[in-house]
Amino acid sequence: MKFAPTELTEPERALQAEVREFLAAELPPGSYPRALGMGAGNDPEFSKKLAARGWVGMALPKEYGGHDRTAVDRFIVVEELLSHGAPIGYHWVADRQTGSIINRFGTEEQRERFLPPICRGELGFSIGMSEPDSGSDLASVSTRATRTDGGWLLNGTKVWTSGAHENDWFVVLCRTAPLEDGHKHQGLSQLLVDLTSPGLEINGIPFLDGSPGFNEVVMSDVFVPDELVLGELGMGWAQNTSELAYERGGPDRWLSTFGIVEEFLRLSEGTPLGDRAAEMLGWATSRWWALRNLSLSVARLIDEGQAPSVESSLVKEMGTRFEQDVLQKVIELVDLEPSPESASLFERLVAAAVQTGPSFTIRGGTIEILRSVASKGLGRG
Ligand SMILES: Cc1cc2nc3c(=O)[nH]c(=O)nc-3n(C[C@H](O)[C@H](O)[C@H](O)COP(=O)(O)OP(=O)(O)OC[C@H]3O[C@@H](n4cnc5c(N)ncnc54)[C@H](O)[C@@H]3O)c2cc1C
Questions:
Q1: So where are the chain's domains?
Q2: Looking at residue 381, what is its pLDDT?
Q3: Percentage of the chain surpassing pLDDT 90?
Q4: Which label site among 66, 89, 167, 241 has the fewest CB atoms less than 10 Å from its CB?
């Protein structure tokens, strides 16, 4: 395990300043529905504007419309977007992980077809991993693809598919060969599936606060041509595991409740903070500082060509627990009944966090699973 201290270089600070300037001009306070971290809304127009600045698909190769930038450069852009509560939903998954796995495992034809529109912010992807009976234990997925002329027929149900109602495609983890005793990691594959395919039905599952986001995706004989098998048939488990590594360890795992503290401070301007509030702010700032440094050092490791899955898992484990603790500390400080309909942005953000906060430590792998990944990676599993 390696968490080496690191600082931003001058060019990296210049990028940070550029993104801040862009956000101040594009999304001044009050001009957009500010949300909590990556739970922010979809705005395809905003995604396109960001892409036009070269800030979507940054780490993808130039020949496919990307920018050959580093993981740290992407970290800088993403940190600014998330702390601003910017509407990044439409390009989020494609930018964070799908583009990278298509680049790594896809055919030349798939790279040419999917990467340029991803880099232009014009193609939204969802993740089709979880099923009603498979969450943490993904190798037990029962969605099945069976051979047919020129491709595969896909049958099964995915659940908790974030954004499927607004995105264009999703990557489906499924079984392409029968389950053999004791070999459940074999015979799995990843398919690129158009969310408008005949036979595919998307049923919304509202969050606790009633907002849309989650979906159940039911697939009945959905035809997927051979050219949309991602990577090698039967290698879905290994590919999926490497995809999960892109999902963990970034600023999205410790910034979800940042906007609440920022708004709390803004509302406190001009009045003495008081000891309890000062203590909470000191506590939160020191932890943000530490988590940010851990997370930044993960991005540096990626740029060194390493696969820091233990480090990423630990950042997500600590970061998502912290996101929930911050909310709890703020609630203890203020006397309010948070309402999603409140005229106050602070109260709306608190209300949203109360209702969605429990999911921070579940999405992208639960606390227990992350601890298990870390301990196995350290040879203690
Ligand atoms: C906001 C949000 C967005 C999501 N978006 C998506 C998405 O877009 N696409 C997608 O595919 N999925 C998505 N998910 C699903 C998410 O990945 C799963 O909820 C998660 O992996 C846990 O699976 P589960 O809900 O089936 O719980 P289970 O796996 O049933 O776990 C239940 C409990 O048992 C514990 N547990 C399970 N196995 C072990 C073990 N081996 N050792 C110790 N403890 C264990 C877990 O930690 C947990 O506490 C999303 C979830 C949330 C909350």
A1: 10-123, 127-235, 248-377
A2: 62
A3: 83
A4: 241
